[in-house]
């Protein structure tokens, strides 16, 4: 392999040792992969956001301690409705290896990765399995071209394709494992059809922002079944070629406000299982959540929900008073989810 930085090998070794000592890495094969794959080649520059929401770029050269650390590095931005949004990143290495361990990759397995990104995860897989057993797709041709170039510089040549990940990559199926480094509101059935017998899928299943978790699924006849991971993780939503920026919901503060006191957690997205259940029992698609801030202290005073049809809800953080209006109740599903969660003895993700 070819590298332009010196001193990265000792840092990569320390990162691998740290992840092993913390229990993120359990097998010597993944320890070796993290210690020997040069992450800095895949992230020559990254972006960070300040308190005002502005993004600035920084070069990773000379800052290898930050590159070889359990830190997510944002690598690509996109203009959306007047602001810049992160659309690609190099995931935290500790999360990446926990996912790879959960995937239970074995010698000889063929693996499809949905979401090439920088190519670093594909490099780890190629180191573990060999180039000819690793396949990776991403919707962004530019990202795929850069990943291919950087993978080659590091000495790896897995099969990459610039396609919509929702369709998988049927021409190289079947796969023993499919790993998605993006979130989806529904698991595409064609992924199941591209699995080998007793194959597995690890994907971030999110009905909305923060409303879901990583789930490890196996195909049993005509269904996929499995369990969420005990630890929570969040990935950027899967993108598609036809995607267009989604305007913020129009919030109409209509007359006839409804008010009552709630015992559900406020804000609900801090109880992630409850927040997930709320989307299963009535919260509509496209709900946006946020906070109202005190104009003097800038501290949050209320949680807010807004739906695309103009319905809205506001809940005071101190007095738990719900105020909402519109044809769709946004807080009743939260209360229903909370009651369900309590009735089932407050289950965690697993």
- Strand-pairing-aware structural class: alpha/beta
Helix/strand order: HHHEEHEEHEHEHEEHEEEEHEEEEH
Overall 3D form: globular
Q: What proportion of the residues is helical, as a percent range?
A: 25-40%
Count of discrete alpha- or pi-helical segments spanning 4 or more residues: 10
Q: Biggest β-sheet: count, sense, barrel?
A: 7 strands, mixed
User: Strand order within the widest sheet?
Assistant: 7-6-5-8-9-10-11
Q: Supply Rg.
A: 22 Å
Strand percent estimate: 25-35%
Q: How much is the average pLDDT?
A: 90
Oligomer designation: single chain
Report how far the terminal alpha carbons are from each other.
Answer: 41 Å
Uncertain stretches of 5 or more adjacent residues: none
Care to count the β-strands? 16
Q: How would you describe the overall organization of this protein?
A:
The strands form 4 sheets. Strands 7-6-5-8-9-10-11 form a 7-stranded mixed sheet. Strands 12-16-15-14-13 form a 5-stranded antiparallel sheet, with no helix packed on it. The longest helix has 14 residues, at 8-21. It has helices at residues 8-21, 28-36, 39-42, 64-67, 93-103, 120-129, 141-153, 189-193, 272-280, 332-343, and strands at residues 45-49, 55-59, 73-80, 83-90, 111-114, 134-138, 159-162, 175-184, 195-206, 212-220, 223-228, 258-261, 288-293, 300-306, 312-316, 321-325. Helix 1 (8-21) runs antiparallel to helix 2, helix 2 crosses helix 6 and helix 9 (272-280) crosses helix 10 (332-343). A hairpin with a 4-residue loop joins strand 15 (312-316) and strand 16 (321-325). 26% of the residues lie in helices and 29% in strands. The chain has 350 residues and is an alpha/beta fold. The chain is globular, with a radius of gyration of 22 Å.
């Amino acid at each position: 392999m070819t590298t332009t930085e010196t001193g990265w090998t000792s840092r990569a070794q320390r990162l691998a040792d740290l992840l092993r000592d913390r229990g993120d890495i359990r097998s010597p094969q993944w320890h070796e992969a993290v210690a020997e794959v040069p992450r800095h080649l895949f992230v020559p520059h990254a972006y960070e956001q300040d308190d005002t929401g502005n993004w600035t770029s920084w070069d990773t050269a000379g800052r290898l301690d930050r590159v070889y650390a359990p830190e997510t590095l944002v690598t690509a931005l996109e203009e959306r409705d007047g602001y810049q949004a992160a659309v690609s990143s190099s995931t935290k290495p500790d999360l990446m290896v926990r996912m790879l361990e959960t995937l239970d990759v074995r010698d000889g397995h063929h693996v499809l990765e949905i979401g090439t990104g920088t190519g670093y995860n594909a490099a780890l897989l190629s180191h573990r399995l060999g180039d000819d057993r690793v396949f990776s797709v991403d919707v962004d041709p530019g990202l795929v071209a850069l990943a291919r170039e950087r993978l080659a510089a590091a000495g790896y040549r897995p099969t990459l394709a610039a396609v919509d990940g929702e369709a998988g990559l049927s021409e190289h199926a079947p796969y023993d494992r499919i790993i998605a480094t993006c979130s989806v509101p529904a698991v595409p059935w064609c992924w199941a059809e591209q699995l080998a017998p007793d194959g597995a899928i690890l994907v971030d299943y999110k009905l909305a922002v923060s409303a879901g978790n990583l789930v490890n699924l196996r195909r049993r006849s005509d269904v996929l079944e499995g369990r969420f991971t005990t630890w929570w993780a969040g990935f950027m939503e899967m993108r598609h070629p036809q995607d267009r920026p989604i305007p913020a919901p129009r919030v109409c503060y209509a007359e006839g406000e409804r008010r009552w006191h709630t015992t559900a957690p406020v804000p609900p997205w801090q109880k992630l299982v409850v927040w997930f259940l709320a989307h299963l029992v009535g919260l509509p698609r496209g709900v946006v959540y946020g906070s109202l801030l005190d104009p003097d202290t800038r501290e949050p005073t209320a949680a807010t929900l807004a739906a695309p049809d103009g319905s809205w809800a506001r809940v005071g953080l101190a007095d738990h008073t719900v105020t909402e209006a519109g044809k769709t109740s946004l807080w009743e599903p939260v209360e229903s989810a909370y009651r369900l969660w309590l009735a089932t003895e407050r289950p965690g993700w697993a």
